[in-house]
Amino acid sequence: MGKIVLKSVRKSFGEVHVIPSVDLTIENGEFVVFVGPSGCGKSTLLRLIAGLEDTSSGIIEIDGKDATMLPPAKRGLAMVFQSYALYPHMTVRKNIMFPLKMAGMDLAEATRKADAAAKVLNLTSYMERKPGQLSGGQRQRVAIGRAIVREPAAFLFDEPLSNLDAALRGNMRLEITELHQTLKTTMIYVTHDQVEAMTMADKIVVLQAGNIEQVGSPLDLYNHPANAFVAGFIGSPRMNLLEGADAQAMGATTIGVRPEHLDISSTAGKWTGKVSVAELLGSDTFLHVNVEGHGSMTVRGGGEINLRHGDTVYLTPQAGKVHRFGADGKNMA
Amino acid sequence: MSTQSSRATARLMVAPSVVLLFIWMIVPLILTVWFSFRIYRLLSPERNGWAGFRNYTWFFNSPDFWLGINNTLLLVGGVLAITIVFGVLIALLIDQPVWGQGPLRILVISPFFIMPPVAASIWENLFMHPQNGLLAAGAVGMGIKPILFLESYPMASVIFIVAWEWLPFATLILLTALQSLSSEQLEAAEMDGASSLSRFRYITLPHLTRAITVVILIQTIFLLGIFGEIFTTTQGGPGSASTTLPYMIYKQALIAKDIGRAAAGGIIAVILANIVAFFLMRSMGKHLDA
Ligand SMILES: Nc1ncnc2c1ncn2[C@@H]1O[C@H](COP(=O)(O)OP(=O)(O)OP(=O)(O)O)[C@@H](O)[C@H]1O
Ligand SMILES: [Mg+2]
Questions:
Q1: Can you name the CATH fold of B60-289?
Q2: B174 Cα to the center of ligand 2, angstroms
């Protein structure tokens, strides 16, 4: 079980109100991702749930019980830190068995559980090594192993993959997703990686300056961003946000068009511009186009497009794919 | 320093200082060995000729010798135990965020800046003195007979004074080690259900082993030669209850003015130091590797 409910949770460090007020419900078994710009309070929120920070006010419920005042160990949650936080003087086996030892489990049982976890995580041949003798990905797996042996009500991950290279990150992403599918335990995952958020989450929570901007499934957020901030934050490359006459013509303060929702033509279209940079990725081409009256816009085209610096292109937004935002930034649709 | 040529260059570059240091060490050592086999008394005309091992056997047969060795080791062991136990505790305490942390830390460190004879005098005259001392005043105030610290417990008193002087050093080294412990490790242990005692036992203490090793090794070197505190307070007494090996050497050199015997005592001290160092490195050297 692992249903977590936050009710008007606030957190201030002295005069700094890092989290003004957050209400959030995380259902049992859900994979929830917190995203947001650096310094928006993702880690703080996670640490509040873990119990590593005290709330300034508000209630945190875990499985229907008020856990606001419980110490971290009593909350039944496991956390994987960005720096792994392995115990450097203990072997991998001892690291993984540490929570069980602290819980007073007998040695045979603890060893059996540690071996089982090691098998799931492909760590069996490293059990007698110290963390210093492991690669980044292996350390990450040990940290996860230490978390899963406890059979926690929920896992908390704070940017667990940010220290890994791109290829390994892709692998670990799959492994964590698979782990979630096998264990079916609630997971809360902090990241600022678009791809991780979109591919792993059942539910994404977008934060800005400690406030929740929107909560929803990845496609929800992609298709129906609640406001201009979410629109700009979710999706890669970023959505083009335009102001001025074109926006007013549609009755909005700002309009947004995703790079993949712009049609490119060499003869005619709504906007005219010159290509400044063409990024050829093989499968796709990202064009950065200097559009008259709007500045730089990003366009996503097929891999076969043959445009280069200085070429003139005409861009037209696809019908029904334009998002309109009012003066308060809210989506008007 | 990985390639062969860079290693060779490195050796060449450090060679002059190694040679200099070697001469610096070996000349006094050889001179001491030389004197230790000579008859060399400043108070008598016979200053020539070989003594054989007589200077050494005199030491071994001296009634104070084994007591002196014992006291030397007791001093080293006692001071190490006190400074490490209390050093860890004080370091843990002043690592906490408290008001006035800066001045507090300076206060904790300050005994280290006081010269040994001054520190010993302060303790002897202001605290432990049976008539004028603060401790005696306290005892009288409570209606107890004042304890004659330096007379009744000379070794314990000396150990206490030396520990007081060296506690700041241990605290300082342990504090810096403590500050390098990542808070995430402690938080991870906290989430793993470790009580604060277990966190200390399984996370903090292993993290401190290297610093503790450094403290033990450095302090042992200095503590083996402690002299000023004994000279200032007990003069090795009462009787020879607080005589240590360095104090015996001092008595031979500057009171009996027998250079030959003093040199023999010096060589014995060097051998003792090497035995201690050997066992220390055997048991703790591995903690120094990263
Ligand atoms: N102990 C603290 N004392 C004062 N301010 C703090 C403290 N911890 C965090 N903050 C502030 O709270 C804000 C949120 O920090 P937090 O670490 O939660 O950000 P984040 O969203 O995790 O950022 P990142 O993506 O860079 O990790 C920051 O502005 C930070 O300066
Ligand atoms: Mg963070």
A1: MetI-like fold (1.10.3720)
A2: 30
